[in-house]
Amino acid sequence: MKNRLEELRKQRGIKQEELAAILEVSRQTIGSLENGRYNPSILLAFKIARFFDMPIEDIFIYEEETEREKEE
């Protein structure tokens, strides 16, 4: 799953540490989300969407797997 978290955070001029504090997660969690190494829980996704005042789908972009990827 891709996301626009880093882009949105930078548009607001917020550091990873600041966003982490607001969302009550670690800075490492924000970094992992931004780098695509971690998918958020549904609760965290809602918190992020609420903070940015956007629908979840505008922040997190789900990409369906192809049949080949499913087989691997």
Structure notes:
With 72 residues, this protein is mainly alpha-helical. The chain contains six helices and two strands, in the order βαααααβα. The chain has a two-stranded antiparallel ribbon with strand order 1-2. Helix 2 crosses helix 3. The longest helix is centred in the middle third of the chain and has 11 residues, at 42-52. The two termini are 17 Å apart. The mean pLDDT is 92.
State the helicity in percent bands: 55-70%
Please tell me what the overall shape is: globular
* Strand content range: 5-15%
Structural class: mainly alpha
Mean pLDDT comes to 92
DSSP strand count? 2
Gyration radius, to the nearest Å? 13 Å
Which regions contain 5 or more consecutive residues with pLDDT less than 50? Answer: none
